[in-house]
Amino acid sequence: MENKIRLLEWKGRTDLVMYASRRSPKLLLEEITGYVPKDLQAGSAEWKGIFRRLFDFEGMSLIAHLAYTQISIADFCKQMMAMQSNWDAQ
Questions:
Q1: Total structural domains within the chain
Q2: Among 25, 50, 79, 87, which is most buried by a count of CB atoms within 10 Å?
Q3: Domain housing 16
Q4: C-alpha span between 47 and 3 (Å, rounded)
Q5: What pLDDT, in 10s, does the model give residues 18-54?
Q6: 54, 45 contact by CB (below 8 A)
């Protein structure tokens, strides 16, 4: 959960930097705080639901590649931590 929060925080920071760098129109706080996601189905916020939405687009978007990379790194880190735990136990 902590990693998801960190990923979302950095996604938000990146979005703000991109928004400012492109001289986009003024942000409206009401649009941000009142935002309601289109997909409110159960499980849509889990990894499977996120990937389903990302890959539903025609072709594979850049964000889908980023998400795939993120989950691959998370799996790799879990494996490395398990290996280190086994190593430490010896």
A1: 1
A2: 50
A3: 2-89
A4: 12
A5: 888 888 888 788 988 887 767 666 566 677 777 777 7
A6: no
Asked if residues 3 and 11 have their Cβ atoms less than 8 Å apart, the reply is: no
Question: What does the block give as tokens for 83?
Answer: 């290996």
Give the mean pLDDT of 68-85: 84
Residue 3 has a pLDDT of 84
Mention every residue, 6+ apart, whose C-beta is less than 8 A from residue 29. Answer: none
Report long-range pairs for 52-61 (Cβ below 8 Å, ≥24 apart).
Answer: none
pLDDT at 25: 83
Locate 88 and state its tokens. 């430490």
